[in-house]
Design brief:
The chain is mainly α. The chain is about 40% helix and about 10% strand.
Amino acid sequence: MNDGTLHGSIRWPADTDKMGRETVVPIGPDVRRALDRVLRERPGLGAGLLFPAPGRHEKPVSRHLAAAWLAKAEKLAGLEPQEGSQWHASRRGWATARKNLPVQDVAAAGGWRCIGVVQSIYQQADKETMLSVVLHPAELREAR
């Protein structure tokens, strides 16, 4: 959907969110290209669901079926499933890669309502960021 943002946005309807909250999130150029490819391959999809349920295109795919697809994809790729994950490992990586950005915006773009969840569960310490913390302290000045 193009709502005037640079590359468009995706609307996550409230009835597909476990917290019952609608979210509209801008998308980047890679997602735009992927969506355009899907729209070319499936003309008539239009404003429909991005992940419709098989055989019931008016309903979203269930989280259980999506989890089964993920498990099958991991197996086909020869990857070990991440412990306690399903989609959480990807969400942790996404949030951690954005630690340099304001946490309020990371939470909103990632669909989290609480920044505490982002900071305590999803954003993980990593060697590169810890090294940057050690090597680049802010200059402190005394208050007058």
